[in-house]
Amino acid sequence: MSLRNVFRSRKFSRSFKVTTPSDPSSAGERSSGEESIHCNAWSNMLPELLGEIIRRVEVTEEQWPHRQNVVACACVCKRWRDITRQIVRSHSHKGTITFPSCLKQPGPRDLPHQCLIKRNKKTSTFYLYLALTPSFTDKGKFLLAGRRYRCGTHTEYIISLDADDLSQGSNAYVGKLSSDFLGTNFMIYDSKPPHSGAKPSSGRTSRRFTSKQISPEVPAGNFEVGQVFYKFNLLKSRGPRRMVCSLKCPISSSSSSSSGESSDSISPDGHKMYNREHHYSILKNKAPRWHENLQCWCLNFHGRVTIASVKNFQLVATVDQSQPGGKGDEEMVLLQFGKIGDDTFTMDYRQPLSAFQAFAICLSSFGTKLACE
Questions:
Q1: Which residue from 30, 63, 247, 361 could staple onto 21, CB 3.0 to 4.6 Å apart?
Q2: Where is the composition biased (Low complexity) (predicted)?
Q3: Cα pseudo-dihedral 223, 228, 232, 236, rounded to 10
Q4: How far is 345 from 358, CA to CA, in rounded Å?
């Protein structure tokens, strides 16, 4: 049986066999001892062999659903989980998505991740899926969910790992998007510190509500990681919305190693803690061209957008603030978002954006902005 079939088979998931003792009074003790013996047999595997097994599984399966085999490796025991995390992090420059922490790491450099956003108007809920095939009808793998709430004079989008639990008091809470009164200025908040020494944002809109569900290990505040600003269009000139995004983007492991920067530290829960400040990226919407025959503004979405909408946009880099006077590539699309159905949209992103940041930016596009259109 091949290694791939081993991880997919029931034998792998049920390899910790427990023998039921004849004496019922000692069943619990003996069962635990038997399970411990089998667990030790797996965890005591030679580190060179164990590392080679997990490394081969990781490098040969870059996309879902095959990535579930990498997750299966991490589920065997704590030792397997630690080694799996190390190997996945060492290849994080590929932008692969395996664990929840990968949703806050930079996307791929070459080919963008193609995603779908499903909208439920009745519940004001949005669901992000990683597309597994080029087909628009394929639902894909669930990544994140966001729900819109009206909070006094402003609006908030709570982003969660759980499609059914979208509250700031949940352990699945990963961050939020908060708007101003006009819905033209948005702040992106991360639930966890983006780097060592980061301080939570002050202010009523950035604090997490108290809840008994929150684990003591979960920070009590929100950490600002970006801003989305829609420019006013008071003269009602023709054209799509104009937007500017200022983001704190994590530096990919590939660029860090090549530049000789210090390695990143890892928190006890596996969250990546960056030892230095994030790289600041400023993005703006790519200017469309006017099509004389169609009498409309056009952008080339390469077949990924099929319905014209004021919500559609493409973002490109403008200025690299890590280098004085540095210019961004205004032809390379880092994030594009567009409509393909009444309640279905595409979202394609790449470095330096993470899935969490890209999703938050796209959420800001929903809703009417009278002063910007």
A1: 30
A2: 250-268
A3: -150
A4: 13
Return the SS3 of 314: strand
Q: Three-state DSSP class for 188?
A: strand
Helix ranges restricted to H, 61-187: 68-74, 78-90
Lowest average pLDDT, out of 36-40, 98-102, 131-135, 355-359, goes to 36-40
Long-range contacts formed by 286-289: CB under 8 A, 24+ apart: 286/313, 286/314, 286/315, 286/316, 286/330, 286/333, 288/239, 288/240
CA separation for the pair 21, 35 (Å, rounded): 13
**Among 79, 58, 76, which residue's Cα sits nearest to residue 67?**
58
pLDDT at 226 over 70: yes
Distance CA 144, CA 17 (A): 35
| Confidence at residue 283, expressed as pLDDT on a 0 to 100 scale | 92
- Reference 146, options 123, 169, 130, 115; nearest CA is 123
Percent residues over pLDDT 70 in the chain: 68
Q: Which residue has the tokens 């929150």?
A: 214
Tokens of 30: 């003996």
Instruction: Please state, rounded to an integer, the average pLDDT across all residues of the chain.
Output: 76
CB-based contact 349:107 (threshold 8 Å): yes
- Find, among 363, 369, 365, 339, the residue nearest to 125 by Cα: 363
Report residue 7's pLDDT band, with 50, 70 and 90 as the boundaries: very low
Those residues with Cβ within 8 angstroms of residue 307's Cβ, 6 or more apart along the chain or in another chain: 338, 339, 340, 341
Query: Is there a contact between 53 and 31 (Cβ–Cβ < 8 Å)?
Result: no
For the record, the structure tokens of 124 come out as: 């004001």
Higher pLDDT, 135 or 363: 363
Radius of gyration, CA atoms only, the chain:
23
Q: Would the pTM count as exceeding 0.90? A: no
97, 113 in Cβ contact below 8 A? yes
CA-nearest of 109, 21, 138, 179 to 351 is 109
Distance CA 87, CA 16 (A): 25
Sign of the alpha-carbon dihedral angle for 193, 194, 196, 199: negative
Q: Is the peptide bond before 352 cis (omega within 30 degrees of 0)?
A: yes
Q: Are 6 and 14 in contact (CB under 8 A)?
A: no
